[in-house]
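Question:
Write out your own:
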Amino acid sequence: MNLDIRDVHAAAERIESYIHRTPVMTSARLDAETGASLFFKCENLQKAGAFKSRGACNAVFQLSAEIAARGVTTHSSGNHGSALARAAQIRDIHATIVVPRNANPVKKAAIAAYGADIIECEPTLAAREQGVSRVVDATGAHLVPPYDDDRIIAGQGTAALELVEDVDGLDQLLVPVGGGGLLAGTTLVAADRGLAVIAAEPEGADDAFRSLTSGYRVTDQASDTVADGLRTTLGELNFEIIRKGVSRILTVSDVEIVSAMKMLWTRLKLVVEPSSAVPFAAIRRYPDIFAGQRVGVILSGGNVDLDNLPF
């Protein structure tokens, strides 16, 4: 299937009653400090605390009754897992989430709160995929991948679709990249509107940057970053969309991420997790790229362990 903007519009209609149309916030002070006009799409205020609710609902509500009855499963470091658990709860089907043992405890608690079963695994992609395979073999559950899936990509693209509908005259869209579902979906929207797309990524999990630079998908990554939602490896479907439509990927350090996160908390009064702060960290590190531009920035999530803040 070749995804395009029609799939994003269809997803928006399908999930409308199950998600928030999140607000867009601005800050004159941040504009003055960065030299750009910044428009923050607040997916930290989304259902289940992250943009992941969009893709999860789009996937779950496309399942036939027969397939849905077998339940759903996925692997996730947290946000996709809680989003899928919530979507399954709404549809009254069972969910089993394979979670790395070192995942954020707040995110694991959210998964459990939505009624899903949790199976812990080692914090490697291979272990996560093996865990899901065992669930599928044992229960017949339907796999809803965290990012490498047409339904997920189209669903995540609805955040950017709302942003461009709500804010006129944007020049650029800036999003974080981990597995690439949000970035790929945003790219579909940007292509339809003739906008530039830039992604931001932690230096300690820079496989997307290396993939775009080299022209082939890099999978040899041992992630080490405070941005736990971006530790995953770029998906195959996602890379095919991203390499055709993303102008560049910028990398930032963990120190810069934490500083940007703190500034978003204090200036915008928004609780965002480290992954959400990565794009703003890129604006601060590379101001010349954004100077004089109207930039739509997606704040991807706000699920933070308040007992273990990085600042």
The radius of gyration is 18 Å. The domain at 5-50+149-308 is CATH 3.40.50.1100 (Rossmann fold). Residues 150-166 form the longest helix (17 residues). The chain has two domains: 5-50+149-308, 53-143.
